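step 4 of 6: structure.
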Amino acid sequence: MSEPRIHGIVLGGVGGQGVLSLAQIVLEALRRSGLHALQSEIHGMSQRGGSVHAQVCFSEVPLSSPIIDEGCANLLIALEPLEALRYVAMLRMDGHLVVSEEPQVNMEGYPPLDDVYAALKKVRGCHLVDTEDLARKLKHKQAGGMALLGMASKFLPVSDAVWHDVITDRFAAKGARVTEKNIEAFNAGRGLVQEAVGV
Amino acid sequence: MAQGTLALGVEAVGCAAFDAGIKGAFGYPGTPSTEGFEFVEAMIQAEPEGRVAQWAANEKVAYDLALGVSYAGHRTLVTMKHVGLNVAMDAYANSALTGVRGGLVLLVADDPGMHSSQNEQDSRRLAKFAWLPVLEPSTVQECYDFTWRAFELSESLQVPVMVRLVTRLAHCRAHLVRRDVLQPTGLGVAPKETIQDWVLIPSNARRRYVDLLAKQPRMVAELAPMNRVVAGTGRRGVALAGMGRAYFEQLALEHPELLDMPRLEVAAYPMDPGLEPVFLGLVDEVFVFEEDYPVLEERLTFQRAGTIHGRMDGALPRTGELTPRLLKDALGLRTADGKAASTLDLPIRAPRFCDGCGHVDAYEAMQEALQNLGLPGTRVFGDIGCYTLAAQEPMSAIHAVVEMGASISMAVGAAMAGQTPSVAVIGDSTFGHSGLPALLTAADSGVNVTIMILDNRVVGMTGQQPSQALDQVERMVLGMGIPASQVQVLTPLPKQHEANVKAMEAALQHPGPSVVVFRRECIQSLRRGVLKEHDQELKACAEQACCSTEARP
């Protein structure tokens, strides 16, 4: 008998970018796909523009630890390129990164952007997304998060139908138009990864 | 009907309290406990039916409110963070002697690793100090189930019961299965023949202390099913509690050989002292995995020094959060190498003041006033809130932050010791929490102290909860005995900067106590419209010249 596999997703970004709500969407989508999932988040003063990260673990068996150990995550979803670099060591050798190219410079000493991109491109399995350009094309300022999620969805065992249901429920209170725009962004992101790589 | 829902660990406690039929929920915001109250508050607002949910001015007030509900015969929940229990300690320790009528459950969220706290004290120690039971869940479902159990225990043992969470569990979100909801029926007010139990004059208190100690064996007996020894084939064992138990169980999924280790699993205290010898009889050495202080470890070490490994013998770090990695390292489990960390230098992205935050304007006025008066090196006593961010470089505007309300008293003490002018900075909610008695003493002292009250009209840091001091700050200040001539109300805006600097200079130069209120609503709450309805009502009231206008000084 082989041991059950435990999968880990790390989500990183800057306070106010929506890291925690993205994590909640992922958690709910996994749960609706019949998996056991836990989400961990650290906040407090995080909405004040500091680094924020959340983790989601899932498996076919019930889990009890919400924390992913270094080197054990399968996927990193980062809403900001510098923040992505903080969590690279969380990933397994064969792990993937889905990263927004859009920097949030609200701090002293932000390294030259080219150095940040170069460091990310050195990491195997890194998928950079020009969320700014995508948002412009979709005429939807906040498209970035959903597009990243769409791209990340290629690496997660959740069907399109479930993703769409969860996103629809999430934005139901904001009306059909907002839901539509978010699903459009999700689909656009999903289209950016050519081959599906299941975990 | 039983149903499923997604909830954080602290929310699961709030949800269970609602389902177990509480009449009232009380608390004071503090990370990582805040969402526990907010969850049950939302449930109560949706289905009030005589239930109440009320943020209190501080944790002690919250606890006493809950004790009153219990006295009246109803179940009640009170929530706070670990350092909040210090504030409520007088009420908590003495309620052990009075006992309870309706079940009273205290949710305390500890913060090992100090993610957003000033210490990492372990509330299990405070429960032991008060001779009271504490339950320690390790999963979100246990948060829910243990809270139900805590209400039953509270009523059967007639004592308050603590449910202790730590940050990782408090902020772990998972699927939760609920039980059928009980309506708040109530047992009726504490009966006449028990009145003397509630009156802690020395003659009664002596008797009640004996009663409390006499309850200990019953507590142990009733909690016994929550703790157990699991036999194994090896001679190396583990003692597990809280997240230590959660992490170990998950590691055992990937390393089933771990289940050969004999285990002592603890989820409730006081624990049966007979359990430890049974466990120690099975093993030659023990690793103790518990979150925060070495509570179990100390007990085991006392019985078998030299063979117990944990925080005390250096097998685990003495401070900070427990992690799965620490368990792996201690147990010698190998992890496959992951990706290499980035070699690029990654500067810290620290939390900072929001753009347009009024606190920044207030601090700038203070710093310029001190500069103008030739007092640029003046030490300033700060307090707990968003405005604590001013302690960081480059602002470095406050030079001490200890605990809620300390700013005013420390500034008065320093002034008494000759440091004048002395400056305190405190937020409106912290002022209502524990600044009031300090201000009473400040007014009485007559020393040269300038107290800045940064009134952003909400509890900003924890998520813009309502501040109990809303619209009351000047009246409170005057009521504490600060003369009206020494109370100024300013608007912290860049365009008011010059006037604010002048006002601060005048306050600093006044030889006695003076108060400067900087009032402007929190940017976050303004954006969310938290006070919109309140302010519309206030405006309507003012137009009709009714209550709220005469309430203003």
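step 5 of 6: annotate
 - Chain B touches chain A through 56 residues (CB under 8 Å).
 - The radius of gyration of chain B is 26 Å.
step 6 of 6: archive
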